[in-house]
Write a structure and sequence with these properties.
about 280 residues, mainly alpha, 2 domains, two-stranded antiparallel sheet, 11 helices, 2 strands, about 65% helix
């Protein structure tokens, strides 16, 4: 059972690392383009995850565990703390909503059916657990324990048996993915950025020769993700850029047309109409 719990934690950690390093969301309510991009990622990921088999996932997990064990324990510890900080910056009600969404998604999923996403093999779990035990000596236990407490309802919502994780139906999976994206969008952007940078530092601490020798086979095993998921992740990036552009435009400073520089409703700024064509703005002094 300890190894099973470690397997669930390994899946969760991998998801958080990927999210923070590949497509960290903005810390605001997600826009409609972003919601559409999240749905596209979910739609692209679902059939790939559903088709994962133990004979393919096992070797990948073993190599991933070896790379994890080869990373600097100090960098791994720092990554755990930064991820904990990012998780703890999410308002509890957002995390509760995400957990409730996943619990609802799994409402009709029995543990004997639809559980075809294999957990990592025992060998990989032992290697990862041993590496974590080494890194844990440098971790602030209070921070990680607090993050574990707030994450527990979300992790416990996932239905699994002793060998595999179950998948809910696609429509429910999409709804839960949106709720999770909403929760991540409410996190402190500085904490998310720090977690992303630290995760890359941890990955960069793996000896280059070992990483280079493992990557070709891992890339081959991960090929099914490449086409659909990469296109969907690009869509997330484009949606983020568009959302950032709109937020910057909305937050642009108003131009002053009065001595006291009050923000009158007609002072709409350059290129936005209003009275700008009739009055000359005051010079800066």
């Amino acid at each position: 059972m300890k190894l099973l719990s470690a397997g669930a934690a390994a899946h969760a950690a991998a998801a958080i690392l990927l999210a923070s390093s590949a497509c960290t969301p903005p810390a605001v309510a997600i826009s409609q383009p972003m919601r559409q991009a999240v749905l596209e990622v979910a739609d692209a990921a679902y059939p790939v995850v559903a088709s994962v088999r133990a004979d393919a996932a096992g070797p990948f997990a073993v190599q991933a565990a070896a790379l994890f064990a080869a990373a600097s324990p100090l960098e791994v510890a720092r990554t755990a703390e930064k991820l904990s900080d990012a998780l703890l910056s999410i308002p509890p009600e957002r995390l509760d909503a995400a957990a409730a969404s996943w619990k609802s998604a799994y409402a009709d999923v029995a543990r004997s059916s639809s559980c075809n996403v294999p957990l990592p093999p025992t060998d990989a779990l032992r290697v990862a657990a041993s590496a974590w035990d080494t890194a844990a000596a440098s971790v602030d236990p209070a921070s990680v324990a607090a993050a574990a407490r707030v994450a527990r309802p979300l992790l416990s919502a996932v239905v699994r048996n002793e060998e595999a994780i179950c998948l809910p139906p696609l429509p429910a999976f999409e709804t839960a993915a949106l709720a999770t994206a909403d929760a991540l969008a409410s996190a402190d952007p500085a904490a998310l950025s720090a977690a992303s940078r630290q995760a890359r530092a941890a990955l960069g601490s793996v000896p280059r020769a070992q990483a280079m020798s493992a990557m070709p086979q891992m890339q081959q095993q991960a090929t099914p993700w490449h086409s659909g998921a990469q296109a969907a992740i690009r869509g997330v990036g484009e949606a983020r850029a568009e959302q950032a552009r709109r937020e910057a435009e909305a937050a642009a400073p108003k131009r002053c047309f009065t001595m006291s520089c009050y923000d009158y409703s007609l002072d709409t700024g350059k290129g936005r109409g209003g009275i700008e064509g009739y009055y000359r703005p005051l010079p800066d002094v």
